[in-house]
């Protein structure tokens, strides 16, 4: 968790906080999407995370993807901007957020994919018609938009 979030949590406790997240729809050469299984919720989501004060969307994306996957991404393209009621969630620890998500599509990357990290227990590529049943509820919309073949940028 970044310093901003920690500072705000000390001030407001578990009340709703607006956050900005950046995530990557990373496609391999077979057109499959990379998903990670979260340790805290045991569901599947995109690599990505929360923006820190002063960062750009792209800086957040590159930092979070590398931290979580060990991959260096290239030439991200805007896939969608997601907001609305689905962004309201409560984490298992009781913290509430309203999350705005900026999602990018990436088809070029390099590096050795790591399987486990502090937040994830595995990374797997999935085809559009064989996604896992347990998608992260806060991210299902953009993963399913990708599976349906929608072209960005999507604004919801």
Please name the defining characteristics of this protein.
156 residues, single chain, 11 strands, six-stranded mixed β-sheet, Nucleoside Triphosphate Pyrophosphohydrolase, three-stranded antiparallel β-sheet, 36% strand, alpha+beta
Overall average residue pLDDT: 93
Number of helices: 3
The biggest sheet amounts to:
6 strands, mixed
- The CATH superfamily appears as Nucleoside Triphosphate Pyrophosphohydrolase
Overall geometry comes to globular
N-to-C span: 26 Å
CATH topology: Nucleoside Triphosphate Pyrophosphohydrolase
Describe what this molecule looks like in 3D.
A hairpin with a 5-residue loop joins strand 7 and strand 8 (96-106). The longest helix is centred in the middle third of the chain and has 13 residues, at 57-69. The chain has a single domain, classed as Alpha-Beta Complex (Nucleoside Triphosphate Pyrophosphohydrolase), CATH 3.90.79.10. The protein has 156 residues and is of the alpha+beta class. The protein has helices at residues 3-12, 57-69, 140-147; strands at residues 17-26, 33-38, 44-45, 48-50, 72-74, 77-82, 88-90, 96-106, 108-110, 120-126, 154-155. The protein is globular and about 45 Å long. Strands 1, 4, 6, 7, 8 and 11 form a six-stranded mixed β-sheet that branches. The two termini are 26 Å apart.
């Amino acid at each position: 968790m970044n310093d901003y979030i920690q500072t705000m949590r000390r001030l407001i406790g578990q009340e709703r906080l607006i956050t900005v997240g950046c995530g990557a729809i990373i496609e391999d050469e077979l057109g499959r999407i990379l998903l990670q299984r979260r340790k805290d919720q045991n569901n599947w989501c995109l690599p990505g995370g929360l923006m820190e004060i002063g960062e750009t969307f792209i800086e957040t994306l590159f930092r979070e993807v590398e931290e979580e996957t060990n991959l260096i991404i290239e030439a991200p393209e805007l896939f969608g901007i997601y907001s609305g009621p689905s962004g309201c969630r409560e984490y298992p620890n009781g913290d509430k957020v309203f999350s705005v998500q900026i999602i990018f599509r990436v088809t070029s990357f390099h590096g050795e994919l790591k399987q486990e990290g502090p937040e994830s227990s595995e990374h797997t590529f999935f085809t559009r018609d064989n996604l896992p049943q347990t998608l992260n509820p806060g991210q299902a919309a953009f993963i399913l938009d990708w599976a349906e073949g929608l072209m960005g940028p999507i604004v919801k």
